[in-house]
Amino acid sequence: MRLSAFLFLVAISTVLAGSITIKTLVFPTETSTSLVEMVPLKPLSLRAFTLCMRVATELSGKREIILFAYRTADYDELNVWRELDGRLSFYLAGEGVLFSVPELGALETHLCVTWDSTSGAAALFMNGRKSLTKIYKKGHSVRSNGKVLIGQDPDNYLGDFDAKQSFVGEISDINMWDSVLSASTIQDMYSGNNVSRGNVLDWETAELIVNGEVEVITREL
């Protein structure tokens, strides 16, 4: 897909008068054209990861919502979804792993997913609370040379978007590490305490390429 209109942004958080300000992406309407590409610090060649974000949406009912998409030329390497039935899930190049958790809503949720190839251990954290552990894709590797997209699910490489799967709402603080963070570190992150920034995706310094009807606002965390 040709990116016809784009804006380079640096999502830099600053500390002012004891508070933290952060860039936030607002997707106001359902479209097949609004998306943000997030440029990683290094290739997503991964055998373990922690992926975190803050998200709020008023979309309800039987509707899929894409929360995060990493696509290579051949595969959806890593997608995070809200499913039709409200469960949250992530997919690594094939069948996914799903978690029955409280539904997302208009109140902001801090969300993390973790996975380790050696053990296959997969888990989800909502507002610092950990789900049960599931065994998923043991021995798998996430492959590099793809694009990270927020707001749309590409059914082929950077194209063929479906408005009925698009994200509508507010999303921010997207960070990714090439290891599984401890539960206590994720709890600290949810509480707003200082933790090491993502070494794969770092929201503070990330280059963002914004397309379509996406508003970038600054707010206090």
UniProtKB/TrEMBL annotation:
Q: Which InterPro entries has this protein been placed in?
A: ConA-like_dom_sf, Pentaxin_CS, Pentraxin_domain, PTX_dom
Record key words, sorted: Calcium, Disulfide bond, Metal-binding, Signal
Highest taxon of the lineage:
Eukaryota
UniProt cross-references to SMART domains, sorted A to Z? PTX
Which cofactor does the UniProt annotation name?
A: Ca(2+)
What residue ranges are annotated as transmembrane?
Answer: none
What binding partners and quaternary form does the record give?
A: Homopentamer. Pentaxin (or pentraxin) have a discoid arrangement of 5 non-covalently bound subunits.
Protein name from the UniProt record: Pentraxin family member
List the source organism. Seriola lalandi dorsalis
